[in-house]
């Protein structure tokens, strides 16, 4: 078997989506954590965009979480995440696109809106897996990093509040689709459940994620999450049973 490496940020829920897929399918791999900012040069040298996750299999590089799951299901068919039935497959891919585009960016923006104002809370998560010597340096430059993150992800008051509203809309859509069912598509776990649950994960901080989460989030984020706990129960259950 060719060596497999996942290049990633530990805190990224898109990277967690791929970590989960690799572990679920039992694909042996190693992980290489990239440093925020410095990752851009590497990413653009092997792929089209500056984003992670990036999966390397031998001389092949696959970028973006959905494309990586496509690759894994094609080359490691055991425990498939994509339904075989064409209609169910289309439905699963729609849910994954919904998670990636209509949920993930908003969870990230809304969570960072509070977390970036609390360095003692967010720095351990941002530097999970980083070299020990890097951590004090990152703390020193964090004000500049925070400003760059806010600009890159539009983490400003109006945009953050709009994202909070979008998350509520998405949670209502998920709840309506489930209607008491265990899975979003068909009667088995699929990439639909994985993608939606991974995008919501930063809100309920599962241990399986592998990041040093705080015991609880700072306010007002913690209060906002607590008020929606009933809407997150399903995603937590999916993690507990399939991660």
Any overview of this molecule?
With 243 residues, the protein is an alpha+beta fold. The chain folds into two domains: 4-75, Glutaredoxin, CATH 3.40.30; 86-242, Glutathione S-transferase Yfyf (Class Pi), Chain A, domain 2 (Up-down Bundle). It is built from ten helices and four strands, in the order E-H-E-H-E-E-H-H-H-H-H-H-H-H. A four-stranded mixed sheet has the order 2-1-3-4, covered by helices on one side. Strand 3 (54-57) and strand 4 form a beta hairpin. The model has no long low-confidence stretch (mean pLDDT 94).
Write a brief caption for the model.
By secondary structure, the protein is α+β, with helices and mostly antiparallel strands. It has ten helices and four strands, in the order βαβαββαααααααα.
What attributes does this structure have?
243 residues, alpha+beta, Glutaredoxin, Glutathione S-transferase Yfyf (Class Pi), Chain A, domain 2, 2 domains, 4-stranded mixed sheet, 10 helices, 7% strand, globular
Helix and strand topology:
Elements: E1 4-8, H1 13-25, E2 30-33, H2 39-46, E3 54-57, E4 60-63, H3 65-75, H4 86-115, H5 119-126, H6 134-153, H7 157-178, H8 191-204, H9 221-226, H10 229-242
Parallel strand pairs: 1-2
Antiparallel strand pairs: 1-3, 3-4
Shape: globular
Low-confidence stretches: none
Helix content: 55-70%
Q: How many alpha or pi helices?
A: 10
pLDDT averaged residue by residue? 94
Structure summary, number of beta strands? 4
How far apart are the termini? Answer: 24 Å
Order of helices and strands: EHEHEEHHHHHHHH
Top CATH class of the largest domain? Mainly Alpha
Number of domains: 2
Largest sheet: 4 strands, mixed
* Integer-rounded radius of gyration: 18 Å
Structural class: alpha+beta
* Fraction in beta strands: 5-15%
> What is the CATH topology classification name of the largest domain?
Glutathione S-transferase Yfyf (Class Pi), Chain A, domain 2
The CATH architecture assignment of the largest domain turns out to be Up-down Bundle
* Biggest sheet: strand arrangement: 2-1-3-4
